[in-house]
Design brief:
120 residues, mainly beta, Jelly Rolls, 5-stranded antiparallel β-sheet, 4-stranded antiparallel β-sheet, 9 strands, 53% strand, globular
Length: 120
């Protein structure tokens, strides 16, 4: 998935995915993120998993700091124990994810790849 000159990129899964066994203290979301220049991220950046399709309903989300990124590919591990929840997401039926960055500067290129959940 590529985010270019936009504030967010969203993807709806063809079939819902059950991640309930991973949403535990040792569970985490892994995602590969390419950013051409992290300095172009000028506002808050969030990653959402939802069961409703709406980031304001039934979502698990993480706030990402600009300093977490370097230019090029970044392997990001997002532990579930530091995530936030909105309105009790159905973790047995995740069907939507969104990468959202507020007010990126012109020229920002963001590519998402290799997303999965795992336990230590």
């Amino acid at each position: 998935m590529r985010v270019k000159g936009a504030q967010s990129a969203s993807f709806v899964l063809k079939n819902p995915v059950d991640i309930s066994q991973y949403v535990v203290e040792s569970g985490k979301l892994h995602i590969s993120v390419y950013i051409n220049n992290p300095d172009l991220l000028t506002g808050a950046t969030y990653f959402y998993l939802t069961s409703s399709g709406d980031v304001d309903e039934e979502s698990i989300y993480w706030y990402l700091q600009k300093y977490q990124f370097t230019a090029g590919w970044n392997e990001i591990e997002l532990p579930f124990y530091i995530s936030s929840f909105k309105r009790a997401p159905k973790t047995e039926a995740i069907k939507h994810f969104t990468f959202n960055t507020q007010k990126p500067s012109e020229g920002a290129v963001i590519i998402l790849d290799n997303m999965y959940v795992t336990k230590d």
